[in-house]
Amino acid sequence: MPNPTTQAVKIWDLPTRLFHWSLLILIAVGWWSSTENGDMELHFRCGYAVLALLLFRLSWGVMGSSSARFAGFIASPRALLGYLARVKNKDVIHHIGHNPAGGWMVLALIGTVFFIVLAGLFANDDMMLEGPFANDVGKSISDLATSWHEQSFYGLLGLLALHIAAMLVYLFFKQENLLLPMLTGIKHLPQEVSVPTIHLRSSWLALLLFCIASVAVWLLVKMA
Ligand code: HEM
C-alpha cells in the first residue's frame, strides 16, 4: 500500500541500473576466471565486455537521464567538503541522485575499473597469453602494464569496501536506503522534500549507445 507520508520518485533509469549490476557480475566473473581453476579466454571476454560497459556509461553520463549525467553529480571540492562536514550530523540530507561524496566515489570506481581494463590490454602472463596490444609496446612496458593490471585490482577492492561501508553507514546511521533505489530505480522521499524534475532518457537510446560501444571495442580488438 502506498505510504501517504512519502512520495515515490524514479531516480535511476533501467540502463544505469543494468550497467551497475552487469559491471558487478562481470568483475566477479573476470576475477574468478583469472584464478587457477578459471579460464583465461573468459577473462579476456569479461574485460572486453567491461570496456564496452564503461564506454557506454561515459556516453550515458553525457547524453543519458539527468540523474546519470556527470555534470549533475560531480560536486566541486568546496561542495564536497561542505557536505562531508554536515554528513556526520544525525539529520538526513535528501539527495535525489548521488550525493556529493557518492558522486566522487562513482568517478573513482569507474576510473579504477577503466585503468584495470586498459592495463590488461597491454599485459602478458610470461607464458603464452597476452593482451591484444602487448606486442606493440615491448616486453618491459607490457610487464609494467601487467603489474598495474594486478595491483590496481587491490585498489578496486579497497574502493569497493568503502563503497559498501558507506552504503551501510547510510542505512544504519542515517536511515537512508541507497541500495533499494539501485535495484528498483525508485526512492521514497518525505512528501515535504521538493523534487526537481528528473528527465529520463529512452532505454532504446541506451541500447543504441551500448551497441556502438560494443562495436568500437570489437573493432579495437580486431585491429590489434
Ligand atoms: C564490482 C563491484 C561494484 C562496482 C564496480 C560498483 C560501482 C558503482 C558505480 C559506478 C555506481 C554509480 C552508478 C552510476 O551512476 O552509474 C555505483 C552505485 C551504487 N552501488 Fe555499486 N558497485 C559495485 C558493487 C556494489 C555492491 C556489491 C553494492 C551493494 C550491495 C553496491 C551498491 C551501490 C549503490 C547503493 C549505489 C548507489 C549509490 C548512490 O545512491 O549514490 N555496489 N556503484
From TrEMBL:
* Cellular component terms (Gene Ontology): plasma membrane
Q: Which GO terms describe its biological process?
A: respiratory electron transport chain
User: What molecular function does GO assign, one term?
Assistant: electron transfer activity
Query: What topology in the membrane does the UniProt record assign?
Result: Multi-pass membrane protein
TM helices/strands, residue ranges: 18-35, 42-60, 104-123, 153-173, 204-221
Alphabetically list the UniProt keywords.
Cell membrane, Membrane, Transmembrane, Transmembrane helix
Q: What is its main location?
A: membrane
Q: Where is the Cytochrome b561 bacterial/Ni-hydrogenase domain?
A: 12-185
The source's domain of life comes to Bacteria
**Per its UniProt record, what SUPFAM superfamilies does this chain match?**
Transmembrane di-heme cytochromes
- State where the protein is found: Cell membrane
PANTHER family linked to this entry: BLL0597 PROTEIN, NI/FE-HYDROGENASE 1 B-TYPE CYTOCHROME SUBUNIT
* Protein name per UniProt: Cytochrome b/b6 domain
